[in-house]
Amino acid sequence: MKPQVNIAVVVDVIGALSDRTLQGGNLCLIDDGAFDSKGQGTPGLCTVVTPGQVVQWSALAVDLQTPVEIRSITFLGADEGASVTEYAGEGEGEGEGAAPAGGRAEGRQLDLNVWSGVVPYFMTPGVPYRYRLELQMYEGEHSVLHIDSPALMCL
Question: Organism's domain of life (predicted)?
Fold first, then answer.
């Protein structure tokens, strides 16, 4: 088992801002996990992980003129959600906090390109834990978009 799974969050920023959505080819999620994750290259990526493994999300913009940053990662629903400890990585800020099930982490900078978290041991094997991925693209009206379709799933 690899100690870390990397998820690349690739965004067509111009397309997303123009369409006001991350759907329609504006978002591509890819992981390098050792297991067969479903939905590679789509917004519906279901990354297969193991408890205790580190998951790292990295935001990459197709348009190099307009930056994209991960604003938040929130696990959805008390029945579906899982707590993770998030550590601020590369980016303009640093901090750490815990995101309770169905909640958001507090006490951290929101302008980060890399987020990481540890897969908790209480996740039920075979159950997808969906999360909201919220992205900030430049600034202004409609510059924050989110998608609720990606998930983590334990073996």
Answer: Bacteria
Q: Which CATH architecture has domain 4-154?
A: Sandwich (2.60)
Instruction: Specify the residue for token string 């750490």.
Output: 96
Cα of 64 vs its chain's centroid, Å: 20
Single-letter amino acid code for the residue at 72: S
Task: State the Cα–Cα distance between residues 27 and 24, nearest whole angstrom.
Answer: 8
Q: Alpha helices of the chain — where are they, by DSSP H?
A: 13-19
Q: What is the pTM of this model?
A: 0.80
pLDDT value at residue 91: 35
Rounded CA separation 93/57 (Å): 16
Rg, the chain, Cα only: 14
